[in-house]
């Protein structure tokens, strides 16, 4: 799968694509928007626009293009069993 995705969409983070010193707002965010849109188009977008359920170990959310997603929330405080499933929530 990843061999068909251009490297530019598999590398970096959001801050890498913002021209913070440019006074033109559209130019400042152009590279960032292209990077985010490319990641979304190739199915490697890692950010949700909204959540449709409570934030927990498993959650339902939606991408920027409105496509609903569900699955494991890797940013939660849950312990995951490497063989699958949730062991418990960290306090």
Shape label: globular
As a percent range, the share of strand residues is 15-25%
Count up the helices: 1
Q: Give the strand line-up of the largest sheet.
A: 1-2-3
Q: Mean pLDDT, as a whole number?
A: 81
The counted number of beta strands is 5
What secondary-structure arrangement, pairings included, does this model have?
Elements: H1 25-41, E1 50-51, E2 58-62, E3 68-72, E4 78-80, E5 86-89
How would you portray this structure in words?
It is a single chain. This protein is α+β, with helices and mostly antiparallel strands and 91 residues long. It has two domains: 2-41, no CATH class; 50-89, no CATH class. The chain contains one helix and five strands, in the order αβββββ. The strands form two sheets. A three-stranded antiparallel beta sheet has the order 1-2-3, with no helix packed on it. It has a two-stranded antiparallel sheet with strand order 4-5. Strand 2 and strand 3 (68-72) form a beta hairpin. The protein is globular, with a radius of gyration of 16 Å. The chain starts with 24 loop residues before the first helix and ends with a strand. The mean pLDDT is 81.
């Amino acid at each position: 799968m990843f061999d068909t995705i251009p490297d530019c969409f598999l590398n970096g983070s959001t801050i890498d694509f913002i021209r913070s010193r440019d006074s033109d707002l559209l130019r400042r965010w152009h590279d960032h928007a292209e990077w985010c849109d490319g990641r979304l188009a190739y199915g490697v977008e890692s950010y949700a626009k909204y959540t449709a359920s409570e934030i927990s170990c498993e959650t339902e959310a939606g991408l920027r293009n409105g496509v609903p997603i569900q699955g494991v929330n890797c940013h939660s405080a849950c312990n995951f069993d490497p063989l699958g499933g949730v062991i418990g929530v960290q306090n």
